[in-house]
Amino acid sequence: MSTTKDKTKLLFICLGNICRSPAAHAVMQQMVDNAGLTDQFLIDSAGIGGWHVGQLPDKRMRQHGARRGYSVDHKARQFTAAHDFSRFDRIIVMDEENYSAITAKATTENDAAKVVRMADYFSRHDRPNVPDPYYGGAEDFELALDLIEDGCEGLLRHFLHK
Predict the structure, then answer these.
(1) Buried/exposed 94-112: b ≥16 CB within 10 Å, e otherwise
(2) 14 an active-site residue?
(3) 96: left (phi over 0), alpha (psi -120 to 50) or beta
(4) Which residue among 19, 20, 117, 152 is the active-site one?
(5) Which of 5, 53, 66, 72 has an alpha carbon 20 to 30 Å from 19's alpha carbon atom?
(6) What is d(CA 7, CA 66) in angstroms, rounded to the nearest whole number?
(7) How many beta carbons lie within 10 A of that of residue 129, not counting itself?
């Protein structure tokens, strides 16, 4: 049985944990697995709100992800400050609203410092965030996945060059 003590622990956050964060979870997990680094990372995702707890991701995100070879199948859960700040090394949010909501839950400077924006790791896109595709069309889901792939590549590079 492997321990999580020495693993880099990443938590992806979006509003409801049914579009962007479970997609980032799936993309990052596949990148880590493909690089042969599965035993070095623990990856999870959560939502700010609890509206969708226990549900699969939005069908459209699952379909768009599957077309790119990702299994976007994480069951939604809600972020819990008491548990998640102590468990994860880095908490990656998709937009400024997510950033504000999660940093507001931090009780220490160390916890707040764990929260970063996905856009901080973009190398191919000049965007401030990963927009929520939920109320959009196919192109919005594709854009979200493009940005998530870019951010996850940058995030993986960051941890490999630490």
Answers:
(1) bbeebbebbeebbeeeebe
(2) yes
(3) alpha
(4) 20
(5) 5
(6) 27
(7) 18
Q: What are phi and psi of 103, to 5 degrees?
A: -65, -30
**Rounded Cα–Cα distance for residues 126 and 8 (Å):** 27
| Nearest-angstrom CA–CA distance, 26 and 88 | 17
pLDDT, position 129: 98
At 91, list the tokens: 């908490």
In the set 58, 95, 111, 132, the catalytic residue is 132
User: Known catalytic residue: 20?
Assistant: yes
Q: What number is the average pLDDT over the span 25-48?
A: 97
Centre a 10 Å sphere on the Cβ of residue 8 and count the other Cβ atoms it contains.
19
Question: With a threshold of 0.90, does the pTM exceed it?
Answer: yes
Distance CA(135)–CA(115), nearest Å, equals 26
Three-state DSSP class for 45?
strand
Q: CA–CA separation, 14 vs 19, rounded Å?
A: 8
Of residues 91, 95, 60, the one with CA closest to residue 155:
91
